[in-house]
Amino acid sequence: MDKLLKTKKITKATFKAFAKRNAGRLYVQHLSSFNGMEDMVTDVKSGWKRAKLTDDKTWPVEGVFLAYNGNIFELYEDAAFIGVYVYNAAGSDIIAVQK
Predict the structure, then answer these.
(1) Which among 9, 8, 12, 6 has a CA at the least distance from the CA of 87?
(2) Average pLDDT along the chain, 99 residues, taken 10 residues at a time
(3) What is the pTM of this model?
(4) Residue ranges in 1-99 assigned as alpha helix (H)
(5) For the range 55-62, what are the long-range contacts, defined as Cβ-Cβ under 8 Å and sequence gap of 24 or more?
């Protein structure tokens, strides 16, 4: 967690390293995702759920899509969680750990 706070710019590598370092304590919140029926990104706003890691480069955290480029990463922090907010053309998600 301290490493994440000291990082100047969060990248895909930072995101994946954060996920691996915190594998057993990771939570995910889906804010929006691509809806093929409407051909656009729509709000989902799921609650916090336990996250599972995968070996897939495009889906390193189950349900969180990382495009090959065009991902935007930001530090996320609220009263209970700290982590990474990621968004791209396919939606937006937060992966975080409890404080």
Answers:
(1) 12
(2) 77 89 91 83 86 81 82 94 92 92
(3) 0.84
(4) 2-6, 12-21
(5) 60/15, 60/16, 60/19, 61/19, 61/26, 61/28, 61/93, 61/95, 62/28
